C-alpha cells in the first residue's frame, strides 16, 4: 500500500463526511474510480491501481468495501500484518471503538472478531 493511500485511509477514518461518501460507493464497477475522485477532492493523488492488491489481482467486492466504503478502514504501517477488530455480522461493519462479545451499539447483535490483513 503506497503512502498516499495510507494517508487517505487515515483521513477517512477521522473524517465523518469522507467516511460517509466512501460508504456510499457500492457499485463495484465504479467504486475505485469514484474513490480516486474523492481522494483528489481531499488533496490526495491516487489512481485506480492504488486500490489493487500488490499481486495485481482485482479486489473482491468485500475487499473493495473495506478499502472504499466500509468501516473496516485500517491503515497499518510497516511491511504488512494483521489486525483483529470487532465486527457486527448483522450490520456488516467493523466496530473499531467497540468490544468483541458485547452488543453492537447500532443493532444489538453480539460482536464477533475478524482479522484484517494489510500490506
**What's the overall geometry?**
elongated
Instruction: Assess the beta-strand content as a share of residues.
Output: 5-15%
Provide the gyration radius in Å. 14 Å
Uncertain runs: 68-79
Q: Quick one: biggest sheet?
A: 3 strands, antiparallel
Helix content: 25-40%
- Estimated structural class: alpha+beta
Straight-line distance between termini? 6 Å
Strand neighbour order, sheet with most strands:
2-1-3
Quaternary state reads single chain
How many separate helices?
4
Describe the fold and architecture.
The protein has 119 residues and is of the alpha+beta class. Helix content is 32%, strand content 14%. It contains 4 helices and 3 strands. It has helices spanning 3-14, 16-23, 31-41, 61-67; strands at residues 81-88, 93-94, 112-118. Strands 2-1-3 form a 3-stranded antiparallel sheet, with no helix packed on it. Strand 1 (81-88) and strand 2 form a beta hairpin. Residues 68-79 have low confidence and may be disordered.
